[in-house]
Amino acid sequence: MAERLTTEQIERYSRQIMVPDLGGKAQMRLRDGRVLVIGAGGLGSPAALYLAAAGIGTLGIVDGDKVELSNLQRQILHATADIGRPKVESAARTLTALNPDVAVQTFCTRFDESNGAAIAKDFDFIVDGSDNFATKFLVNDLAVKLGIAFCHAGIVRLQGQVMTVVPGKSACYRCLFKTPPPPEEILNCQASGILGAVAGTIGTIQATEAVKYLAGFEDGLLTDRLLVYDAKNLRFREIEVRRDPHCVACGTAI
Amino acid sequence: MSVRVRVPTPLRKYTQGADEVNGDGANVKSLVDDLDKNYPGIKERICDESGKVRRFVNVYVNGDDIRFLQNLDTALKEGDNISIVPAIAGGF
């Protein structure tokens, strides 16, 4: 049987241990859990902060960028004094300061085809906070191949999309969108803008999904649905996503 | 058939920023043509050269994916709610 929680851990996590759907057992699962956060940016910052606060045992952070002044409006892992430093460094410092119980593993690199499988393989869950379609489709395809559950999200301006994928059980991102758009059709944060709090809302939904998954929630994950958030009108909508038997990533029909 | 169309962020430049517009059509195909008449350029963002819905865009009629209905031939009724949902990438 797994090691028991210490008195200090019980106090630190008491407010979530009290939640009937969680309890001490879930807390031990979180402590033994490993979550990889891809991107220490607008989505990855709030996700990693809540995951560290919740006591996830191991948090992996992948990002090859350095902190810039224009990041700070939304990337709350980093502070003004961090400008010019690698994001994984300031992320690790912030997360460790918040909760020294958490083992933070940093990967100061862009998550790509050459390193993705090696980085991801030992994690239980992935939070995709990447900022481009190439990485998002790669995360989907790798996670499906390796059988790692993940939470996908995309944000732009005042809008967000989020969806959880449990390989072998639920529809994947490629069941929903077959291919990335051509580069000229892409709106990204750099060119289009994003409100920091919108990234926060979506990133914390991703953290919630990671916690639920690790805690063993069988039902209720954001699977087979895309949640679309429109902050301008403050509306959430859900779109049903069906598994595509001919999906190139997860299809079962050959 | 007059229907309501939810316009996603990336396509709002064609609708002068409007996030919801009215459209008209007996089916999705004629609706897209009608939208393009009022908002020139929008059709090209939804459909490819062969007229099919692009692979990174999904269209929903009252929440149902038209790929599981009759695609662009899906019939519309007065008051239907249409959503256009493209993939979005940001995260940064």
What structural class do helix, strand and pairing data of chain A support?
alpha/beta
Number of helices of chain A: 10
* CATH fold descriptor of chain B: Ubiquitin-like (UB roll)
CATH architecture descriptor of chain B: Roll
* CATH architectural name of chain A: 3-Layer(aba) Sandwich
**Helical amount among residues of chain A, as a percent range?**
25-40%
What is the CATH superfamily classification of chain A? Answer: NAD(P)-binding Rossmann-like Domain
Shape of chain B: globular
Largest interface: A-B, 48 and 23 residues
CATH topology description of chain A:
Rossmann fold
Give the termini distance of chain B in whole angstroms: 41 Å
Number of domains of chain A: 1
Structural class of chain B: alpha+beta
Classified in CATH, the superfamily of chain B is Beta-grasp domain
Q: How can the largest sheet of chain B be summarized?
A: 5 strands, mixed
Estimated radius of gyration of chain A: 18 Å
Q: How big is the Rg of chain B?
A: 12 Å
The proportion of strand residues of chain A reads: 15-25%
Summary of the model, kept short:
The complex is a heterodimer of chains A (254) and B (92). By secondary structure, chain A is α/β, with parallel strands linked by helices. Helix content of chain A is 35%, strand content 18%.
Provide tags for this entry.
heterodimer, A: 254 residues, alpha/beta, 8 strands, 35% helix, 18% strand, globular, B: 92 residues, alpha+beta, Ubiquitin-like (UB roll), 5-stranded mixed sheet, 17% helix
Would you write up a description of this structure?
The complex is a heterodimer of chains A (254) and B (92). With 254 residues, chain A is of the alpha/beta class. Chain A has helices spanning 7-12, 14-17, 23-31, 44-54, 87-98, 116-120, 133-146, 173-176, 189-192, 196-215; strands at 34-38, 58-62, 103-107, 125-128, 149-156, 159-165, 225-230, 235-240. Chain A has a single domain, classed as NAD(P)-binding Rossmann-like Domain (Rossmann fold, 3-Layer(aba) Sandwich). Chain A has an eight-stranded mixed sheet, sandwiched between helices. Chain A is globular and about 50 Å long. Chain B has 92 residues and is α+β, with helices and mostly antiparallel strands. Chain B has a single domain (2-86), classed as Beta-grasp domain (Ubiquitin-like (UB roll), Roll). Chain B has two helices and five strands; from the N terminus they run ββααβββ. Chain B has helices spanning 28-38, 42-46, and strands spanning 2-6, 20-24, 57-61, 64-65, 81-86. Chain B has a five-stranded mixed sheet with strand order 2-1-5-3-4, with helices on one face. The longest helix of chain B has 11 residues, at 28-38. The radius of gyration of chain B is 12 Å and the shape is globular. Chain B starts with a strand and ends in a 6-residue tail after the last strand. The interface between A and B is large, with 48 and 23 residues.
